[in-house]
Specification:
2 domains, four-stranded mixed beta sheet, 2,3-Dihydroxybiphenyl 1,2-Dioxygenase, domain 1, alpha/beta, 3 helices
């Protein structure tokens, strides 16, 4: 019998520059921070939050989305591992708004595409990690 899962608990991306990546994700997604090491943290707090590796974990609905700053190479969706991360949005109006947010932050994108069951908006983070927003079509 296979393992029964109930969804994703978290996704964490490995990035090359945490300050650059945080600025990007804060500006584009604006997710609330769930865990980070405070700048004035004592040694006990730093030990307790070792699993952050100097990064940050954001709250994303019932899941978590994190950034881990230890990468030393470039992202490539054509090698084994991650292809892309897709975030759900409510509707096409949310995608229209996302286009404005991306353009206001000088983030290139491929425009909104109709994929029959909904619409997607593709773009990349500062490390070239492929990201996507998806809005379902009304039933």
């Amino acid at each position: 019998m296979p393992i029964e899962t109930q969804g994703y608990a978290h996704v964490r991306l490995t990035v090359t520059d945490i300050e650059r990546s945080r600025a990007f994700y804060d500006a584009v997604l604006g997710l609330p921070v769930a865990y980070e090491v405070p700048p004035d943290a004592d040694e006990a707090t730093r030990d307790q939050l070792w699993f952050l590796f100097g990064g940050v974990i954001y709250k994303l609905g019932d899941s978590l989305f994190g950034l881990r700053p230890v990468s030393k190479d470039e992202f490539d969706e054509n090698r084994t591992g991650l292809d892309h991360v897709c975030f759900a949005v409510a509707d096409k109006a949310a995608l229209d708004h996302a286009v404005t947010v991306l353009e206001d932050n000088n983030v290139g994108h491929a425009g909104i595409k109709d994929i029959l069951v909904g619409w997607i908006l593709e773009f990349r983070d500062p490390d070239g990690i492929a990201l996507e927003l998806f809005a379902p079509k009304p039933a």
